[in-house]
Amino acid sequence: MDDDFPLPEVDQTNKPFWDGLSEGRLLFQKCDDCNYSWLPARQECPKCLGANYTWIEASGSGVMTSWVVYHTAFIPAYKDRLPYNVAIVKLAEGPQMATNIVGETDYSNFSIDHPVELAIEKEHGVNVARFRLIGAE
Description:
single chain, globular, five-stranded antiparallel sheet, mainly beta, 1 helix
């Protein structure tokens, strides 16, 4: 295992998110006061600043809203992945998250609002939420 690989810092706030992924579920927070949903995990609602929220399981479907393809490894641990993508996915339930699109090396298939589905993968012993394109040609 690469000792320099960046691993998530699990704390009291984001532990339910990482525990969910370890169980094969993608969880997000939803405010009990204003119904706003968000990722990444935080202690208060980013809309109303309320501290009452519930963890909700995502359906695993969404759309790609943005992406970039890296051809330079700004993080040395990623040099063997070049080129690789980082995408923003909007979940069907509303929250958006930074992730990777997997199983696709032809980046010409990427487009705004392209449907995606959850693909949980293990990375250096940690389950991470990634997505794959639905219906790519």
